[in-house]
Design goal:
This protein folds into 2 domains: 104 residues; 51 residues. 34% of the residues lie in helices and 23% in strands. It is built from 3 helices and 7 strands. Helix 1 runs antiparallel to helix 2. The protein is elongated. The two termini are 14 Å apart. 21% of the residues are buried. This is Flagellar hook-length control protein.
């Protein structure tokens, strides 16, 4: 059985909405601490400032346009990651550069979420959150199965600092 799989991973709309909601909650907390109830909190202006900075960072993250990634798992278990920027603006002749990557310790595969820590050949670390709304409906399961099989083929469980391929944590749930 071949474990080859390929998936286009777009930024999750649900994750973006949750980040925006959390940013709005921080802004509301800043208003409550700094404006409505400052006498009930020690250092209320400083606390409100921290909430406002957190809100600004979160709302900026939610507003910016995320990158689209393509992840390919070959039949031999090798992983390739392609970052696709301005997909509509590219002409058909130019393809984005793909890099070989490896799963590192800390990668997680759950039924609703995959957090992939991918180390490129040049040592760069990429964190790729893959939620069910980030890929086509049937690709999530196929990608999860392919990643588990690819990690199992390498059969290594190194220390987290080694950066070598490893079997992702599956938690209590099994996707297989």
């Amino acid at each position: 059985m071949s474990i080859a799989a390929s998936a286009i991973v777009v930024p999750s709309r649900r994750l973006r909405a949750l980040v925006a909601l959390y940013g709005l909650c921080n802004a509301a907390a800043a208003l409550a601490v700094g404006g409505v109830l400052p006498e009930r909190f020690a250092l209320a202006p400083l606390s409100a400032l921290f909430f406002l900075v957190a809100a600004a960072c979160l709302l900026h993250t939610a507003a910016r346009h995320g990158k689209t990634h393509r992840i390919d798992v070959s039949g031999l278990g090798q992983l390739r990651l392609t970052v696709q920027q301005d997909v509509d603006a590219q002409d058909a002749g130019s393809a984005p550069a793909a890099s070989n990557v490896a799963l590192v310790a800390g990668s997680t595969v759950w039924p609703q979420l995959m957090l992939l820590l991918l180390r490129a050949d040049d040592g760069a670390l990429t964190v790729l959150p893959v939620l069910r709304d980030s890929v086509a409906p049937q690709q999530f399961r196929a990608l999860a199965v392919a990643l588990r099989a690819a990690a199992g083929r390498h059969g290594q469980t190194p220390a987290p600092e080694a950066g070598a391929p490893y079997r992702p944590h599956a938690g209590e749930h099994k996707i297989l």
